[in-house]
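General statements about sequence and structure are easier to judge against a single worked case. No coordinates are needed to read the tokens, only the vocabulary itself. The sequence in question and its structure tokens are set out directly beneath this paragraph.
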Amino acid sequence: MTAHPATAGGNPFRRMGALVLRNLYLVRSSWPRVIEMAYWPTVQMIIWGFITKFFLTHSSWLVEAAGALIAAVLLWDTMFRGNLGVAVSFLEEMWSRNLAQIFVAPLRPWELVGALTGISLIRTLIGVVPAAVLAIPLYDYSIFAMGLPLLAFFTNILVMGWSVGLVVAGIVLRFGLGAEGLAWLAIFAFAPLSGVYYPIATLPPWLQPVAWALPSSYVFEGMRAVLFDGVFRWDLFAWSVGLNALYLGLAAAFFLGMFRVARHRGLLLDVGE
């Protein structure tokens, strides 16, 4: 078989340029893709900058609680996977073009919200529990030693992940799969403000009120109180529960609102970019 005369010759750089141009148009038409390009380097710089600042002034912190970083990583991964469990489970229905079919069942929108959170819980447990168990022989640290406070931390951080996931799912439902990158991007915007690896006091004073508006900040501060002082802070727990209840309600309302818009505009059958 021989190449077609129209494609055998010509300028290869022109063909490569055409493909590059096509992808530039694709990026230009999708604002989430543009944000993603600068997003990861910026977030990584901010997080590790604050970690470095904290370690420079608190070098004994690791000696006092060597397991704090492992506990922080596991709780952060719970929040991350709670978000993914909701957002990606919803995206899988869009990728398979099954979104319209599941509502023929019929499935009510609020039932979908409940199902997504249930799926998220299962997926999070499957992902986090083996890692927590493996940390015991590898690092001689068990996060389960925290006892009942661990259940409070896990529940609160998971619920915040659900809130973020529902907002992402609503945005994708409204604007199409061009915004699917938010499933992985959005949650990391909260990492620098949540005090995952350092106290909220490490942040600049003007940024601390923003951090205290997040349930995750109270969870990680409460975790450090248990590990460092052996005290469960009920005040931090109460704030986290209250904010989570507020944000989960708002996130569910946002998703259901976007669902109504998508249904009225016929977007349930149009799941492209």
Q: What stands out?
A: The chain is about 75% helix and 0% strand. The CA atoms of residues 136 and 142 lie 5 Å apart. The radius of gyration is 22 Å.
